[in-house]
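Researcher: I'm comparing several assemblies side by side, and this is the next one on my list. It has 552 residues spread over two chains. Same procedure as the others: predict the full complex and return the structure.
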Amino acid sequence: MPVADESVFWLTIAELSAKLRAKEFSCVELTRAFCDRLERYAPRYNALATPLREEAIRKAKDVDGDLKRGRHRSPVHGIPYGAKDLLAYPNHPTTWGAKPYAGQVFDAPATVLRKLDSAGAVLTGKLAMVELAGGGGYLYPSASLQGPGLNPWDTSKWSGGSSSGSGSAVAAGLTTFAIGSETSGSILTPAAFCGLTALRPTYGLVSRAGAMALSWTLDKLGPMCRSVEDCGLVLQVISGKDGDDPGSAGKSYYYAPQFTRKFSDLRVGFAPSDWDSLPSPDARTPLQAALDAFKTMGLQWKEVELPAFPYGPVLSMVLGGEAASVFEELITSGKVDELADKTQIAGLKSYLDISARDYLRAMRVRTLIQAEIRKMFYDVDVLITPTRSTAASGANEPLRSRAGAAPAPTAPSSGSPRGLREHVPAMNLAGYPALTMPCGFAGALPLGITLLTRPFNENTLIALGLAYQSNTDWHKRHPKV
Amino acid sequence: MVRVNRRQLTGALLAGAAQLNAQTPAAQQAVPQDADQMLAEARRQVAANRSSLHRFPLPMSTEPASAFKAS
């Protein structure tokens, strides 16, 4: 039976899995339908780096064999997905979104892709990204081999970066979920701009072996999905100890939101100034409504603000110091000049100015940041804040992102309350997990709200997210493709 | 245990806030077009980050946030 109904492309992992098991269609039929759709529509959003149809169909045949024998390997068994093109996949180019690496081919898959393969998930394509995950600080969304990531909700707008193709592909129903990466904002930003639910795991929970390194002490991989449940199911598959990743925390994640503390025992920190200072009234109303929805859940509330630290400069120095080492050969050979974005080229070159003393000073301030953020969580269990203060900007508009992989958040001006607005650099420096969920629209463009918690406490985020999504339908909305 | 008083933290924060404000969308800023100018601007940014961090009070006993493990 062919996949006849377009609604299939918007189903969650659990919904698709149930249909596969009920034999409403075979995995080969499902995979063919997703490959057709990905190859047909992804170019519209500059979202596709490499289609993997042949490999996907081969995998789908294996899955059908398993299903015939009644074998169900995991919750993602038979589910089509895409991966950011910084993850190694054998016998095909892994370009890191950058011209100097356009012909790069690896022999072995990244650990996350190997784990997903063992779990029976079907990789249908490598997805576009900002070149080198934007590590040099890009000025234009066009900083990518595939061109600017375009937003399925409005193709004149940016999809966000640096996991731009992952954001567009899931939003447009070209794949059921995607794997993105975050150094500082590269999962949260495209997820918020494209209306996805996504999880940035605790540093070290998901192996980065086989992923492009930008900053060894900041890089994380995580799921970009249609729902909170999907994020939990994918995280369960991709997490775990890996001797091939020196940053691996040696911990696993099990999807078990039912065992988290009662909501009445959870203390949630928020900063009223985060909402009061939103630049656009279009964004203020839906984001305020999202906060109000959480306030009906019987949680304990406490006003908080981030400890006072120069998060931007610390993040820039750590990322820049590590990226200068990772990309030293690219920079000194002059091949860096082949990158698409001139600001990024200059940024990477400037990182060679960072001395060991500068880097170590930043890493020492980072120790203080970790200590103060740990103390902050003595009084709260979860933080809540807008993911970004605005919806997506124009696809041709310049950005100013000198601090890493995504445009910098709006920093508090001197004298105004700090709130939690610098959560992206602060919580990435501290290695804490985050969950972003769609929570409304500013005009036609999605907005996101973020929950943050202590390291390795992802189930608390998932439990709160599930409760929010059971009362709202923002995550079920999708653009016309 | 490291101790930093509130006044020291506030001073450092203001330096950081000024730095982050320099990262707001370029539409509000003059964007250098020439490659040499861009490199000079990027280097200025690194220098600005360096001075922000050097204004931040850092107790001598604070170790970097990375750990060497014998194995």
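Model: For your comparison table: Residues 11-29 of chain B have pLDDT under 50 and may be disordered.
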